[in-house]
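Hi V.,

You were right to ask for the full record rather than a summary. Here it is.
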Amino acid sequence: MTWIHVIISEPSTKRWYQRIPTPFFKTWKKIVPAVSIWAVTSQVVTILPMLVAGNFGAMRRMHDPNYEPGMKEAYATAGQLFFAMFLTIALFILLQIPATVAMVRVAASMLPEEDETIVPFDRTFGGLTTPEIIGGQGKIGIVEAWRSFNGECRRRLLRTVVKVAAIVMATWILFTTVVMIEAHLLFGPAFGEMMKSMHGIANRGS
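Predicted structure:
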């Protein structure tokens, strides 16, 4: 939250640790739900695609000592990795973006009044936040934080994410294509044995 405050506000003469909101534990209890959701979604987006991709097809059989992978299996593995990347991007859009937006907006709603923001915005988020001095929580709720992120803002963010995702996927396709061409040229029929060694499978003696 302190990092978010530093990023969205004008330069300050205070050290970063002097900008940690106080009292610490009272503030921590307010921000921890949003940060926890963000942390869980980031792990889901990172781990789930590889778990899914690794539980079917060629990748699932890599731990079988009797498995004899060849170029066909190499193409299948490349396809599964591409599927894992596609699933990662989909989960990022569906889970990570809302969680990140909510966390940032909750943190922004707790910005101290003496800190000036680099871009003016309604700190009450349309009246959704109530100052502590009059009995409120002094922050926006997680659900309200996402709902207050209007359609135009969502479209701009989504366009940016789509552009980045397209660049990442194009790079991945190029990388995979280059690797497969190199595998054909360098290893040929021995590519299956290389795949087994990469995945820690002991080679069988002939």
